[in-house]
């Protein structure tokens, strides 16, 4: 099996979640049979899981998703040492010191992002620039628009272990997004990797005029 095809399939499953072979074939410009062969090999190697689902008509379809082994191919950056450091700060200096540490990181991150988004023209340009920044940091970020609502999607969390240990990271991230996108938009997290979902999703929609101060 060609390594590049296998990696592309794993990346697609990481980005899109559960898919069947026909969708994978279409997305990656493969034949259906070729996609199935790659998926069988990935399943045998333990990188993907499969489940059969019936749509009510005809035979059931087989859907594929990443197994834990497959997810581990998208690593959490320096997970062990980060968690150890967080625990040491909390133990030696206390919870308040940890809050101050994360607060300082939040401010530095906001300043850096704000500078890069400073010349953005409108919400879509902001989201594109933010997705580029976050992707460079390992979050595999993208955005899409549905009707009047935008969705900012992070398909991977490179600090997942740290965020699991200390969820102030997630709260700081949401606060920064709200500040960066402006008070004319309402930003809420609707999916969360720490809630055992495959990605973090932020719903961004215009504030009601009466709600904007």
TrEMBL record:
<protein>
    <submittedName>
        <fullName>Transcriptional regulator</fullName>
    </submittedName>
</protein>
<dbReference type="InterPro" id="IPR001845">
    <property type="entry name" value="HTH_ArsR_DNA-bd_dom"/>
</dbReference>
<dbReference type="InterPro" id="IPR036390">
    <property type="entry name" value="WH_DNA-bd_sf"/>
</dbReference>
<dbReference type="Pfam" id="PF01022">
    <property type="entry name" value="HTH_5"/>
</dbReference>
<dbReference type="InterPro" id="IPR036388">
    <property type="entry name" value="WH-like_DNA-bd_sf"/>
</dbReference>
<feature type="domain" description="HTH arsR-type">
    <location>
        <begin position="8"/>
        <end position="50"/>
    </location>
</feature>
<dbReference type="InterPro" id="IPR011991">
    <property type="entry name" value="ArsR-like_HTH"/>
</dbReference>
């Amino acid at each position: 099996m060609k390594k590049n095809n296998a990696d592309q399939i794993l990346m697609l499953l990481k980005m899109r979640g559960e898919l069947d072979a026909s969708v994978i074939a279409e997305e990656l410009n493969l034949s259906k049979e070729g996609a199935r062969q790659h998926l069988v090999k990935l399943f045998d190697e333990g990188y993907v899981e499969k489940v059969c689902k019936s749509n009510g008509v005809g035979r059931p379809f087989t859907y594929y998703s990443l197994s834990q082994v497959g997810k581990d191919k998208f690593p959490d950056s320096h997970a062990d040492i980060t968690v150890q450091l967080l625990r040491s700060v909390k133990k030696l200096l206390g919870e308040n010191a940890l809050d101050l540490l994360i607060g300082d990181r939040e401010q530095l991150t906001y300043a850096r992002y704000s500078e890069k988004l400073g010349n953005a023209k409108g919400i879509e340009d902001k989201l594109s620039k933010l997705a580029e920044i976050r992707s460079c940091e390992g979050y595999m970020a993208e955005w899409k628009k549905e009707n009047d609502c935008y969705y900012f999607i992070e398909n991977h969390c490179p600090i997942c272990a740290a965020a699991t240990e200390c969820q102030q990271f997630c709260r700081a991230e949401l606060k920064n997004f709200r500040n960066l996108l402006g008070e004319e938009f309402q930003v809420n997290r609707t999916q969360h990797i720490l809630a055992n979902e495959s990605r973090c999703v932020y719903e961004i929609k215009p504030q009601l005029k009466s709600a904007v101060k």
